[in-house]
Amino acid sequence: MPPISRLSALLPKMTSVFVLAGEASGDRIGANLIAGLRRSRPDLSISGVGGDAMEGEGLSSLFPIDDLAVMGYRDVIVRLPLLLWRARQVVSAVMRQQPGVVVLIDAQVFSKVVARSLRKRGYGGAIILYVAPAVWAWGAGRARKLAGIFDEVLSVLPFEPGAMRSLGGPQTAYVGHPALERYPMRPAQPASGPILLLPGSRRGEITRHLPMMAEVAQRLSAHPSVTGFIILSTRSQAARISRMVAQWPIPVSVVVTALDRQSAIEQAIAAVAVSGTVTLELALAGVPHILTYVAEGAQVRMFKRATTRFIGLPNIIAEKEVIPEVLFAHKGEPGKLADAAFALVDAPNELASQAEEFRQIRTLMEKGAPEAPLQDPVERILARI
User: Fold this and answer.
1) Residues 16 and 39 both lie in one domain
2) pLDDT of 11 above 60
3) Rounded to whole angstroms, how far apart are CA atoms 28 and 34?
4) Are 163 and 224 part of one and the same domain?
5) How many Å is the Cα radius of gyration of the chain?
6) What distance lies between CA 169 and its chain's CA centroid?
7) Could you tell me if 187 and 263 lie in one domain?
8) pLDDT for residue 8
9) Pair (15, 78) in one structural domain
10) Residue closest to 132 by CA, chosen among 113, 114, 150
11) Which of 250, 174, 168 has its CA nearest to residue 217?
12) How far apart are CA 72 and CA 48, in angstroms?
């Protein structure tokens, strides 16, 4: 009798897809994907792991998505037994259901563990990674390893298909960034308005960056173009941030809802933001800003190994410095960040220049690069069934 792995590979593929997301941003991507799949193929059976957004599209999650939400190496180590158990559950479910395609959304480490295990177990369907890891920042070795476990990568940045191809990675298609829909481009740069402060979403980031932003607020409070200060916060960190800013000599608002965030973005004259996806969201909305980051020990060593000139996504996409990057190792310098923020707000030509560069970035992301035009993720997945 043939081994189980060979028998599973010989079984006919069901008209089904298994979709897994490991955190909130992946959950939103997964929800849009499920909605698109159901519109195109109402007969398709969809299972997997997701949060509120995916469950709102009819998914019955195999287990709570929060079990996969980890931040940093320490969190991974503490929760390693649970993560390994959940990985085994996912693999067992896929081997039992034999879907035509498995889509793993971001959650890079967990996704690789699941994909490798499925290959070892003899899963014969396609495995797709949705959201490419930043292999372009770390060299060819990581890209080539992906080619051994993923049939295709769906990327959300327009330069990634070319980078993956040059580094020997798997087939990669650019399918657009979810922020394109959530953050429309503002019609014009306001002459005055509030300054947005984005200190990060994680506890450690907020501790390192919010005190520097207090100095920014104090320095800019008397500027004639500045009407106030707004901190864009996650719901989980809003109470802590509110307690911290209560000690500031300058009044500041803390907003968390999607409606309030959108209103703040529409009004803002500029922003100071910690490095991350939020800098791309600001760029797509046309908000001039400065990027900052205080890197700690392991992060400092990691940045030194990076092969990219910049860390901000708008700069990486444009291949030049569009937004200033004010970076620090181990300890921030509030005065230096405040100087950079004042210089931006006090230079109307620089504000206008950033806004024009952002329009070009948005056009590129809406169309894709000439060698890798925008594709529909639903079509890419259905082509594999």
Assistant:
1) yes
2) no
3) 10
4) no
5) 22
6) 20
7) yes
8) 43
9) yes
10) 150
11) 250
12) 24
Cα 110 from Cα 117, distance rounded (Å): 11
Do 211 and 320 fall into the same domain?
A: yes
**Could you tell me if 242 and 164 lie in one domain?**
no
Residue 38 and residue 124 share a domain: yes
Model confidence pLDDT, tens digit, residues 156-170: 999 999 999 999 999
Q: Express as a percent the part of the chain with pLDDT over 70.
A: 90
Quick one: what percent of the chain has pLDDT higher than 90? 72
| CATH number, domain containing residue 23 | 3.40.50.2000
Which among 319, 256, 318 is positioned nearest to 283, based on CA atoms?
318
Q: What is the mean pLDDT of residues 130-155?
A: 86
Say which DSSP state 136 is in.
Answer: G
pLDDT in tens, 258-288: 899 999 999 999 999 998 889 999 999 999 9
Q: Is the domain of 116 the same as that of 190?
A: no
- Domain count within the chain: 2
Token duo for residue 137: 């920042």
Structure tokens at 75: 């969190």
What number of other Cβ atoms are within 10 A of residue 169's Cβ? 24
Calpha distance 99→164 (Å, rounded): 27
pLDDT at 159: 93
Q: What is the mean pLDDT of the chain?
A: 90
| Pairwise CA distance, residues 136 & 343, whole Å | 32
Distance CA 108, CA 130 (A): 10
Domain housing 359: 182-364
Q: How distant, in Å, are the alpha carbons of 77, 197, 232, 238 from that of 258?
A: 33, 16, 10, 14
HSE at residue 27, side-chain half, CA atoms within 13 A, is 19
What stretch of H or E contains 147? Answer: helix 140-147
Q: In this structure, are residues 116 and 41 in contact, taking their beta carbons and an 8 Å threshold?
A: no
172-207 tens-digit pLDDT: 999 999 899 889 999 999 999 999 999 988 788 899
Residue 50: count of CB within 10 angstroms of its CB: 30
Question: Where is pLDDT greater, at 296 or 132?
Answer: 132
Long-range contacts of 241-245 (CB under 8 A, 24+ apart): 241/199, 241/206, 241/210, 244/206, 244/210, 245/210, 245/214
For residues 385 and 324, give the distance between their C-alpha atoms in angstroms, rounded to a whole number.
45
Three-state DSSP at 16 gives strand
Find, among 375, 320, 3, 364, the residue nearest to 158 by Cα.
364
Three-state secondary-structure class, residue 47: strand
